Amino acid sequence: MATSPQRRIDVAGLVIALLLLVLAGLVWWDITKLQILSPYDLGPKVMPIVVSGGLVLLGIGNAIGALRGDLPARDSLDWNPIILILGGLACLIILIAIGGGFMIGTALLFATTSAA
Question: How many degrees, rounded to 5, is the angle at CA 42 between CA 19 and CA 40?
Fold first, then answer.
């Protein structure tokens, strides 16, 4: 009989699943504090409920994958794209703050993101 290799529980996957579930709980808690009365059945509370439900499904699915060891292997971290995107975002925020314009800042953010 061939033995299958021992699968390990993916701790990072479980942490991500927990964060997704916490975020779903936060969205759900925020819905309960929403004091908007709508004469329609589909009011402003519906979309946060859908988002919260989707986050719960993603969290459960990620937890199952992490417990089974089915999550794909992670790639090595490349800092260059992260630095480029964060730099473009910083340029956008600074240009909006000093009155340089949204269009120029957005163009810089697009350029740095596409270069990443």
Answer: 145
